[in-house]
Amino acid sequence: MSHVWCDGLGNPSANALPKCQILRLNRCLRSMPRDMESGELRFGPLSVDWTRQNFSLHPERSPPLFWMDTLCIPVQPQHAALRTRAINQMASIYAAAVQVLVLDAELAQCATAGAPAAQLLARIVCSAWMGRSWTLQEGVLARECVFQFADAALDPVHAWCLGGARYSRARPSASATPIAFPRADDAAETAVYVALYNAFWDALHQDWKSSYRRDPPPRNWRSGLGGSKATGRDYHRNS
């Protein structure tokens, strides 16, 4: 998890959070979009992920596993050396995570249902989380960055592209709601969406860490699902 401490999820005195916050985090984790790495199959009560050679109970039957600095980095003075070691390992932790859930207090107050995609992107790009170097580096390192809103968790990289919905293997979150993308005949709204998507994409340095492209070529019988990942033309900030 990635968050801004002043939003209320930090604790300088102990590796603990109020029970209500833990329950909220559990709800958020259970409603996240499925990650794009899973090769998961289900057999009865078991969930089998062949890509990781992992056998476990269905996610809804077992508690989700997560890492959060507030709970995992020691804060007591007697553990100063261990704290330093844990902080130095944060980059590798975020880089190795399957997904990083971004918790921003302002985004958590905004609903996605029926909202314009450009508005949601603007909220992400202008969020306190995006404006702090410490948290932004966690997003840059993350393979998949998911943003928690009031009613849904969004992964704009894998669910959206410059043309709107990506129509790929990306699975929506359990609480996903319809998003309003620009109409093809609305040049002004499309230009705003494209500029915001490019700003978001570039801020997270997606070009060097993702096989998904910001502007995938159209799907056809040759490309199939791969069309959403194949390299298309690049849009830059001045396009």
Describe the fold and architecture:
- It comes from Botryosphaeria parva (strain UCR-NP2) (Grapevine canker fungus).
- This is Putative het domain-containing protein.
- Residues 215-239 are annotated as: Disordered.
- Helix 4 (90-96) packs across helix 6 and helix 5 packs parallel to helix 8 (187-203).
- 27% of the residues are buried.
- This protein is 30% helix and 12% strand.
- The strands form three sheets. It has a four-stranded mixed sheet with strand order 1-5-6-7. The chain has a three-stranded antiparallel sheet with strand order 2-3-4, with no helix packed on it. The protein has a two-stranded antiparallel sheet with strand order 8-9.
- It has helices spanning 19-30, 69-72, 80-88, 90-96, 117-125, 133-141, 156-159, 187-203, and strands at residues 2-3, 40-43, 46-49, 54-57, 100-103, 145-148, 153-154, 160-161, 164-165.
- It is elongated, with a radius of gyration of 19 Å.
- The protein has one domain (2-169, 176-204).
Output the strand order for the largest sheet: 1-5-6-7
Q: Percentage of helical residues?
A: 25-40%
Provide the succession of SSEs: EHEEEHHHEHHEEHEEH
Tell me the quaternary state: single chain
Number of strands: 9
Mass-distribution shape: elongated
Whole-number average pLDDT? 80
The total count of helices amounts to: 8
The major pleated sheet works out as: 4 strands, mixed
Task: Report how far apart the termini are.
Answer: 33 Å
**What is the structural class?**
alpha/beta
Our count of domains comes out at: 1
Strand content: 5-15%
